[in-house]
């Protein structure tokens, strides 16, 4: 039974990784072939770093991910604060379900609806549709919002109310209380939300496809344009780099997580 | 004092309320508006009536994504079960291995799968060299290839939530069932399966929704011969004239998905606790 389940796991992971492995291996191929490995070379990587269009797309992606994840985190903290403190339950519930909409809807519907908003508003104002950087920032911030709320809201709910009350009793204004007590408390959740937003924004293709214009192209849009025709081999080099960056981030997050877990376990042990 | 606090509370929530009305609610109203008007902006139900022409597309999309979701479940459930039974160290490594494809661009993975299976790709070359094939695989462009693409792209989204519920499952329930005379199969169907329903529901959702709305997978692996709902919507938005039809199709798909989400959530009252895109 044990052996059987090991074989099964190996098979599924093989299925999951075969295409990625092929891309990684053949990005080092000296020939332009995905089926015969002629020899090791870094030619495609050299070509990639001379591809001005790819580099611009990478820069655009990083700028967009930074701006939209920060915006989403700020708005998400505000939203979570409002939801957790709302007096009327129906209000909290409505706010929460509205923020979930972009997460529940398929990406294509979110993309289409955003595009129709921009096109519709342009039509009402009788101006040319204005798709570009700004519409991208708005769209990315919006689809990142629910993920920030989902990671911050539990922190607000767990928080002990007597902490804020004590701060106020000791003379803090509500604003000072927020920045001195509440914000530090929810910070870990906010950081999780920020990181998740950054990654989601970097990765998004479908929504960007609908709200972008050719003058602001992100990396996924650039990759999509490449794959419409025959792909340049420098694309495989790019994909390999992306896979390794993601792997690195995942390993770091995992190691940090398990170190923290172990430290907490040790602390708990010491207390006993 | 009380009054001042509630005013602050209202002021604090306003940026978010404004944002969500402008960019979450208003866009959906615009979909509705475009779906129910013609090109000149006057009311019409022609777009909705015209959707009968896309009946085949809808049926095919629903069929393909149901098959893909079922296959993902059949592959993913045993895998999550096996993963949950490994040691802590192995489990952490396997979790990273499941998450890596999730965070790798879908475009990249789909394209890589196509390159692998295409004529002249590794699979067809290897099979030819082994004498099992006469040089042409002819798999890209079939319905099977589209379904395989969905399974391959979305399988991690099935595995991770189920695996998360598995790890939360108290192993003593399984031991108790065994002590009370359940055999392996009975334990699986009477104890493990019911206790992992929340994970199953979010797994099914996370595979079904992207499958039914995809357009890239069918473009690449279907070789252009399979028009799914996503492809149809995407095409309508390349040309201003057909925005209204596109909005109508999106509206119907959204309603379809809402209904199926409602049905699925009926089986679990817990909010899906796994957040991964």
Architecture overview:
- The complex is a heterodimer of chains A (272) and B (277).
- Chain A is mainly alpha-helical.
- Chain A has one domain (39-271): MetI-like fold.
- Chain A is 80% helix and 0% strand.
- Chain A is built from 11 helices and no strands.
- In chain A, helix 3 crosses helix 10 (219-228).
- The longest helix of chain A has 38 residues, at 234-271.
- Chain A is globular and about 75 Å long.
- The mean pLDDT of chain A is 87.
- In chain B, 74% of the residues lie in helices and 0% in strands.
- With 277 residues, chain B is an all-alpha fold.
- Chain B has 13 helices and no strands.
- Chain B has one domain (53-265): MetI-like fold, CATH 1.10.3720.
- Chain B has helices spanning 2-35, 46-49, 55-84, 88-103, 106-117, 122-129, 143-168, 171-179, 184-195, 197-213, 216-221, 229-236, 243-265.
- Chain B starts with a helix and ends in a 12-residue tail after the last helix.
- The interface between A and B is large, with 76 and 77 residues.
Summarize, please.
Chain A has 272 residues and is mainly alpha-helical.
Domain module count of chain B? 1
> What structural class do the secondary elements of chain A suggest?
mainly alpha
Give the count of structural domains of chain A: 1
The greatest interface between two protein chains, and residues involved on each side, is: A-B, 76 and 77 residues
Shape of chain A: globular
User: Helix fraction of chain A?
Assistant: over 70%
CATH class of chain A: Mainly Alpha
Quote the beta fraction of chain A: under 5%
Q: In the CATH hierarchy, what is the class of chain B? A: Mainly Alpha
Rounded Rg of chain B: 23 Å
Query: What is the CATH superfamily label of chain B?
Result: MetI-like
Query: What is the averaged pLDDT score of chain A?
Result: 87
SSE arrangement of chain B, N to C: HHHHHHHHHHHHH
CATH architecture of chain B: Orthogonal Bundle
Low confidence ranges of chain B: 270-277
User: What would you call the structural class of chain B?
Assistant: mainly alpha
Q: List the helices and strands of chain A in order.
A: HHHHHHHHHHH
CATH topology of chain B: MetI-like fold
């Amino acid at each position: 039974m044990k052996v059987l389940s090991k074989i099964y796991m190996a098979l599924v992971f093989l299925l999951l990784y075969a295409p990625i492995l092929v891309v990684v291996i053949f990005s080092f191929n000296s020939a332009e072939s995905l089926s015969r490995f002629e020899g090791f070379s870094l030619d495609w990587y050299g070509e990639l770093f001379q591809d001005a269009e790819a580099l611009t797309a990478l820069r655009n992606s990083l700028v967009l991910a930074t701006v939209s994840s920060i915006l989403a985190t700020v708005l998400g903290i505000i939203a979570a604060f409002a939801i957790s403190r709302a007096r009327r339950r129906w209000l909290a519930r409505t706010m929460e379900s509205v923020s979930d909409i972009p997460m529940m809807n398929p990406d294509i519907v979110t993309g289409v609806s955003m595009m129709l908003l921009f096109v519709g508003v342009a039509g009402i104002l009788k101006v040319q549709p204005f798709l570009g950087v700004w519409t991208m920032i708005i769209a990315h911030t919006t689809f990142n919002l629910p993920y920030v709320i989902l990671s911050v809201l539990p922190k607000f709910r767990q928080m002990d109310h007597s902490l804020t009350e004590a701060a106020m009793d000791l003379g803090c204004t509500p604003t000072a209380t927020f920045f001195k007590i509440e914000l530090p408390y929810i910070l870990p959740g906010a950081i999780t939300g920020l990181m998740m937003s950054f990654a989601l924004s970097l990765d998004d293709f479908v929504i960007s496809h609908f709200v972008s214009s050719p003058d602001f192209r992100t990396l996924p849009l650039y990759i999509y344009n490449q794959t419409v025709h025959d792909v340049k081999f420098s694309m495989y080099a790019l994909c390999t780099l992306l896979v390794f960056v993601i792997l690195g981030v995942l390993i770091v997050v995992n190691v940090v997580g398990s170190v923290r877990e172990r430290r907490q376990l040790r602390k708990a042990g010491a207390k006993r | 004092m009380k009054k001042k606090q509630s005013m602050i509370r209202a002021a604090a929530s306003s940026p978010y309320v404004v944002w969500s009305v402008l960019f979450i609610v208003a866009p959906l109203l615009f979909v509705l508006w475009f779906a129910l008007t013609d090109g000149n902006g006057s009311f019409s139900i022609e777009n909705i009536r015209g959707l009968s022409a896309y009946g085949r597309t809808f049926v095919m999309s629903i069929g393909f994504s149901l098959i893909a979701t079922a296959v993902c479940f059949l592959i993913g459930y045993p895998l999550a079960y096996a993963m949950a039974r490994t040691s802590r160290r192995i489990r952490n490594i396997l979790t990273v291995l499941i998450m890596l494809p999730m965070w790798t661009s879908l475009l990249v993975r789909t394209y890589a799968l196509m390159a692998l299976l295409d004529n002249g790709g590794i699979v067809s070359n290897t099979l030819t060299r082994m004498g099992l094939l006469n040089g042409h695989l002819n798999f890209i462009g079939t319905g099977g290839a589209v379904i395989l693409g969905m399974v391959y792209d979305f399988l991690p989204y099935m595995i991770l939530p189920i695996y998360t519920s598995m790890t939360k499952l108290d192993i003593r329930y399984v031991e108790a069932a065994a002590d009370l005379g359940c055999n392996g199969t009975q334990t699986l169907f009477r104890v493990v399966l019911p206790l992992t329903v929340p994970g199953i529901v979010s797994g099914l959702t996370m595979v079904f929704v992207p499958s039914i709305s995809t357009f890239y997978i069918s473009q690449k692996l279907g070789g252009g011969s399979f028009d799914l709902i996503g492809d149809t919507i995407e095409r309508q938005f390349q040309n201003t004239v057909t925005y209204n039809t596109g909005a109508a199709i999106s509206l119907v798909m959204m309603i379809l998905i809402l209904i199926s989400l409602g049905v699925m959530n009926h089986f679990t009252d817990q909010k899906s606790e796994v957040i991964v895109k």
